[in-house]
Amino acid sequence: MHKSIILFDLDGTLIDSLQDLANAINYTRRYFSLPEHSLSDVKVFIGDGLLKLIQRAFADLPPQIDIQQPLQVYREYYLQHLLDQTRPYPGVLETLPLLAQQRLLGVVTNKPQQEAVKICTSLGLAEYFAVIIGGDTAENIKPHPAQLLLALQQTGAAREGSWMVGDHYTDLAAAAAARFQACFCTYGLGQKRQEHADLSIKHFSELLQLL
Fold first, then answer.
1. Which domains does the chain have, with CATH numbers?
2. Contact (CB, 8 A) for 155 and 104
3. Do residues 91 and 82 lie in contact, with contact meaning Cβ atoms separated by under 8 Å?
4. What pLDDT is stored for residue 2 in this prediction?
5. Between helices 68-81 and 113-122, what is the axis angle to 10°?
6. Catalytic residue among 9, 16, 20, 167
7. Closest by alpha carbon to 43, among 165, 167, 172?
8. How far apart (Å, rounded) are the C-alpha atoms in residues 9 and 122?
9. Residue 9 annotated in active site
10. pTM higher than 0.90
11. Which of 60, 105, 146, 162 shows the smallest number of beta carbons within 10 Å?
């Protein structure tokens, strides 16, 4: 019988990356002579993939500048600085090994694959995951179910009993579309709208109840 899988979002679920994301955005805004965004502004921009992040953060970009220009500057800077202040949330390093002993685990993030793998590897998280699927890996990103279904395909995991764990409404919507159970992380960067969550947690270690 195939094991079920627990899939995790990355930013706001496994890692607190807000400051590094904000620093990269504001470096890029300074590059284009634009005023900096506050941390609370940047928090609202996160969750729907790289292009949406840049479109939101540069809504005031002069029309003669193509959005691909700040996107490229941002990516080059962020790749060099994505671990400056980013750390796992409390309980992540202690809980993942316990979960991995009994369940398949994976990461499904709208963050680009290169960035996701680099962060997971550098922070000692990658060894617990059977699969890491970034935002440029499947045909569509969350809230579309494509990444979750790709994780099932690549691992041979069963859909029944599988979970999507995340801090953003896109995680919950993707879970519903893929017919996964959904866990919402209230401690994260995102927000829940009307999407259904089978479980809500305030601390990562609460996931041990899934075993």
1. 4-16+87-210 (3.40.50.1000), 18-81 (1.10.150.240)
2. yes
3. no
4. 67
5. 10
6. 9
7. 167
8. 17
9. yes
10. yes
11. 60
What burial class does residue 104 get, using C-beta atoms within 10 Å of its C-beta: 0-12 exposed, 13-18 middle, 19+ buried? buried
Encode pLDDT of 15-53 as tens digits: 999 999 999 999 999 999 999 999 999 999 999 999 999
- CA separation for the pair 101, 208 (Å, rounded): 11
Tokens standing for residue 137: 């890996």
Beta-carbon count within 10 A of 97 CB: 10
Three-state secondary structure along the chain? CCCEEEEECCECCCEECHHHHHHHHHHHHHHCCCCCCCHHHHHHHCCCCHHHHHHHHCCCCCCCCCCHHHHHHHHHHHHHHCCCCCEECCCHHHHHHHHHCCCEEEEECCCCHHHHHHHHHHCCCHHHCCEEECCCCCCCCCCCCHHHHHHHHHHCCEEEEEEEEECCHHHHHHHHHHCCEEEEECCCCCCCCCCCCCEEECCHHHHHHHC
Tallying the residues shown for the chain, one arrives at 211
Distance between CA atoms of residues 183 and 27, nearest Å: 34
